[in-house]
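Incident log, structure service

09:12 report received: a user says their structure output differs between two submissions of the same chain.
09:20 pulled the input from the user's history:
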Amino acid sequence: MKRGFQGMLAVAVVLAGSGCAADARPARPAGARVAPTERACPHGTFRWGRVEKRQVLAGVSDARRFDVRRGVTVHAAFEAVPVRSLHAGVTPAEGKGDQRAAVEALEKKTGAELADAGTHFRLGSDRVQEVSFKESSGVLFYAVGVTTYEASFAYYCAPADTTPVRGTVTTWSPVTYGDLVKCGIDEKLGPASIEAERLMCH
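09:34 re-ran on a clean worker, output below:
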């Protein structure tokens, strides 16, 4: 967590399955890919390609100017509004059970808790940051960041499987983080706060 300026704490906001194919199902063309739910592979294996992990801006508050004299304490609340729409999903979307299995497999791969397929990101209690500070002058804003994940996969029914289901998982970690940033401060910021600074500081 970064500090927007000296004396102000940027507080961290505390803020899947397969079954057997039906006998009546019409025959598929040779080499056609089939979904895990259509194959007798209750213990299939996910293999992962590149896992893209990014920190992005999810919400930002209005920028406010403060001029606090010595000996005076100011209490302020900053409320962030969404700047990005995020939707967790698995493509191709073969079925709810398969999507859940893919997300759970990616959780094991990354060690991170991830939003389930079909979930839309929303700011919750993390949208508000309350602070108290003394003897400070400058323009401040509050930024909320989230870590997103995108990963390609191939799902194999067996080690010798030559027609795996291929797809991509797009999701994020539900644990958000916040920065209270002061415009013009020369300090290292995370990617989400850098994006917010470009939006809010002149």
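09:41 both user submissions now match this output. Likely a transient worker issue. Closing.
09:42 reviewer note: DSSP finds two helices and nine strands in the chain. The beta strands are 45-60, 64-67, 73-79, 81-82, 89-91, 128-134, 137-156, 165-172, 177-182.
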